[in-house]
From TrEMBL:
InterPro entries: MurNAc-LAA_cat (IPR002508), N-acetylmuramoyl_amidase_3 (IPR050695). One of its GO terms (molecular function) is N-acetylmuramoyl-L-alanine amidase activity. It catalyses: Hydrolyzes the link between N-acetylmuramoyl residues and L-amino acid residues in certain cell-wall glycopeptides. Pfam families: Amidase_3 (PF01520). Residues 109-267 form the MurNAc-LAA domain. Keywords: Hydrolase. It comes from Mesohalobacter halotolerans. Its EC number is 3.5.1.28. It comes from the Bacteria. GO terms for cellular component: outer membrane-bounded periplasmic space. Signal peptide: none annotated. CDD domains: MurNAc-LAA. This is N-acetylmuramoyl-L-alanine amidase.
Length: 383
């Protein structure tokens, strides 16, 4: 082999090596780009954060009945709720406590606030001197409507007396003074409607699926709810002072059933407030149903706020959103943005509202001036 042939072979070997390196490098870059894209996509898809708060704990036993402590029952149920919610990949569970420890009411709220959670669910049990009362009820923050609601709130709030410097920590709040509760209805107005929505789901599940006595959705001045910056509810599972209900509450099956209904209510709430990727929710409903008369189709709105004060329904008062509709329901004024028979269109308007700062905005639907579920509304779009 002469010199020129050797040089030719070296050049061919070098070319092959460079070609392999080129393809390998290009492939690696493509692979790295794909990995980064997936990672970035996963990062952008924030999980729905739920704080599960097991009431009482440690030196604070809560109410008692027939030798059973509230702190133990609610912890067992809270952990079960969390485990059920963890089966959903887009949900992140945050516990205020996972064992028998004492945590102040303010600290519980801080846990949720620091996490920037989407929901706060505090779980409790009722207990009174009489053994007759029974049933489940769910509270949202507000001014107590009657003496019973006030007494429940005062009883739950008395736990702060176990905390050091509680007078300073809670701004001079006295859990035993009715005067301290004046003005609670002004707290958390931004989240009141969402809180009521979740409370309704919970009570509906308890009543329809477990046949529990429905004591309703109520408002009262719970400190743990006052301190949170997100939609929040306090669930009273039942009465430990009632013998039959006590038996249900302390049983493994009873706790599992209650946890299932609470977790399902949370998912129902999440689905109601957030856009679904399911084709049933984001399809081309307008093109499929152009022949459907408006008379038989639901109207969708984006609800952005609820408050006791009357605000002019104008763009300048709602971060430039237009049109704004104001209606009155009971003691509240509710503010809506946009309206359409198209669910897809209103989904885009929901995104606009969230971009403008209304993170708790959600879609509602009406048919013949009657509020209906989104599921029912979507059915009106199918010919």
């Amino acid at each position: 082999m002469n010199r020129s042939q050797k040089l030719k072979l070296k050049l061919q070997s070098l070319y092959k090596a460079l070609t392999f390196k080129k393809h390998f490098t290009l492939g690696f870059i493509v692979l790295l780009h794909c990995f980064n894209s997936v990672a970035l996509q996963a990062q952008n898809q924030e999980k729905f954060k739920v704080v599960i708060d097991a009431g009482h704990g440690g030196k604070d036993t809560g109410t008692t009945g027939f030798g059973i402590y509230e702190k133990d029952i609610v912890l067992a149920v809270a952990l079960k709720v969390g485990e059920k919610l963890k089966t959903y990949q887009d949900v992140q569970v945050i516990y205020t406590r996972k064992n028998n420890e004492f945590i102040g009411l303010n600290e519980r709220a801080v846990i949720g606030n620091k996490a920037k959670a989407d929901l706060f669910v505090s779980i409790h049990c009722n207990g009174v001197k009489s053994r007759s009362p029974y049933g489940s009820e769910t509270f949202v923050l507000g001014l107590h409507r009657n003496q019973d609601n006030l007494e429940v709130a005062m009883k739950e709030n008395q736990v702060i007396e176990l905390e050091k410097n509680y007078e300073e920590k809670y701004g001079g709040f006295d859990p035993n003074s009715p005067e301290s509760y004046i003005g609670f209805s002004l707290m958390q107005e931004e989240y009141l409607d969402q809180s009521i929505l979740l409370a309704d789901y919970i009570q509906k599940n308890f009543t329809e699926n477990l046949k529990r006595k429905n004591r309703g959705v109520k408002q009262a001045g719970f400190l743990v709810l006052r301190e949170t910056y997100m939609p929040s509810v306090l669930v009273e599972l039942g009465f430990l002072s009632n013998k039959n209900e006590n038996k249900f509450l302390k049983s493994e099956s009873g706790q599992s059933h209650l946890a299932k209904q609470i977790s399902q209510a949370v998912i129902n709430y999440k689905n109601a407030l957030h856009i679904e990727n399911d084709n049933n929710y984001a399809g081309s409903e307008v093109t499929k149903n152009q022949d459907v008369s408006d008379e038989y189709r639901a109207t969708f709105y984006v609800q952005i706020a609820a408050a006791k004060r009357k605000i002019k329904a104008s763009a300048e008062n709602f971060n430039g959103l237009d049109p704004i509709f104001r209606i009155r329901e009971g003691d509240l004024y509710k503010y809506r943005y946009a309206e359409s028979h198209s669910h897809k269109y209103i989904q885009n308007k929901l995104l606009e509202a969230k971009d403008k700062g209304y993170k708790g905005a959600f879609i509602i639907a009406y048919l013949d001036d009657k509020k209906i579920s989104i599921e029912q509304a979507l059915k009106t779009q199918i010919k």
